[in-house]
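Ticket closed. Logging final result for Methyltransferase domain-containing protein.
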Amino acid sequence: MKSHEERHWQTVYSTKDPAEVSWHQSIPRPSLKALEQIGASSAQSLVDVGGGASTLVDELLDRGWRDLAVLDISGAALEGAQTRLGQRATDVNWIAADIRNWSPQRQWDIWHDRAVFHFLVEADDRKRYKEKLLQGLAQDGALIMATFALSGPERCSGLPVRRYDASSLAAEMGPDLQFVEGWTDDHLAPWGSIQTFTWAIFRRVS
Ligand SMILES: C[S@@+](CC[C@H](N)C(=O)[O-])C[C@H]1O[C@@H](n2cnc3c(N)ncnc32)[C@H](O)[C@@H]1O
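Final structure:
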């Protein structure tokens, strides 16, 4: 049986144009900046968790990355990204799964999450997410995470979110992930309102 969350996100991606959702970015500049900041190289592997229809993979394919995966609870989101990429979609591993129930079959050098972890308002869901994170992120791998900041909206896509600053996010990630640096970034929604995000980089230390 489909979860409430899966039905929600399937409806969103089946009924809305990708450019009209609040989180849309034509170019994912903050993610590219974060990758630059950790000194990422195209020889590394990356999983975009809750990547939806983001163009991050397009940008990384353009830059020569060849070991990319996008996971999302919505198959419709992934199909949208695949259609956009055309033949290039075959160069990406697409994973239709709920992060809370997923069993990673391998490890990645970089785990990227923009605006997904903040939907986990239940402690048990966050615990499950972190278990998957530790299964799927390589030793010494990097976590790039963006959530709504403390001054950001209380809801996203009609769902409640949990907001963070860098220190509460670092406390949430725990001792296995060492906080490297954090900053805030103002995202402009397509209709002009500003949504402040907390961005943070972590390094897996155990
Ligand atoms: C606000 S959107 C952000 C999409 C993308 N990261 C971006 O920056 O454009 C949140 C995404 O998380 C996905 N999502 C929500 N809950 C999820 C879950 N439990 N497991 C996997 N994906 C989930 C949604 O389908 C959606 O694509």
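The beta strands are 45-49, 67-72, 92-96, 108-114, 137-148, 155-156, 159-160, 177-188, 194-204. No further action required.
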